Amino acid sequence: MNTMEDLARQGYAMLPGVFTSEEVERITQRLFEDFAAYSGPAVLKSRDRIYGSRNLLATSTWLLELAQKPVLGDLLEAALGNDVGLVRGLFFDKPPDRSWSLPWHRDRTIAVRDNTLPTTSFKSPTRKAGIAHLEAPDELLANMLTLRIHLDAMTAENGPLAVIPGSHRLDIAKEEPPLVLQASAGDVLAMRPLLSHSSSMSKEGTTAHRRIVHLEFAATKQLPDGIEWNDFLPLRAT
User: A Gene Ontology MF term for this entry (predicted)?
Assistant: First the structure.
């Protein structure tokens, strides 16, 4: 079964070996250089250690170049069309000494410039790390795709991602049993935002981190009701 068929049926597809170990090392190095140079709320720290970012595009717009790699760029255009753009970037680490878990959920919020405008399409305005967010309608989320770049191996030891295949179709009759995913460093997981997923705690005694670059893409720059993306970086220069 090919990647587009996996996305349509399961709501996700794992792309193995997209980045070499040398490329992963360089991506990680550049990210942490950017984090060290940035003092805004986009970078999340605890005990002077960086564990996440809710707004990577404030520090590292070069991440768009990663998605222009043919295997990823071709997938994005096949899934979302020629007007696809990068709208949000997140980074998180699951350090072995400060692990965490997430219950089953879908990624329903998007980053916008202003969440105080009147709207009948969006709801539940919030602010995260100083950025306005809104809960988006299902029709919009169905035309988005997330790429999760694994900077570390994802194993049973370091709190891996679990998914419910088919749940992105919002029809319980089409769902399959939950599945725990594994990945090697350099693999990329493509997933629909409406795919139900969760994450477990790392196992006690593990020394493994689980660092992820999470990039969200949308099919179009246009949003209903005059709402605007906080960022929209076209995949291809016009």
Answer: iron ion binding
* Domain assignments of the chain as residue spans, ordered by start: 3-231
Q: Residue 212, SS3?
A: strand
Give all strands of the β-sheet with 102-105 in edge-to-edge order.
Answer: 102-105, 197-199, 161-163, 179-180
Q: Look at domain 3-231 and name its CATH class.
A: mainly beta
Q: Which are the contacts of 187, defined by CB distance < 8 A and separation ≥ 6? A: 14, 15, 16, 17, 18, 150
Q: 191, exposed or middle or buried, with CB in 10 Å at 0-12, 13-18, 19+?
A: buried
Burial class of residue 47 (count of CB atoms within 10 Å of its CB; 0-12, 13-18, 19+): exposed
DSSP 224: G
Task: Specify the 3-state DSSP secondary structure of 191.
Answer: strand
* Cα 131 versus chain centre, distance: 16
Distance CA 59, CA 151 (A): 18
Element (H, E) at 149: strand 144-150
In degrees, to the nearest 5, what angle opens at C-alpha 12 toward C-alphas 179 and 18?
110
Residue 15: pLDDT over 60: yes
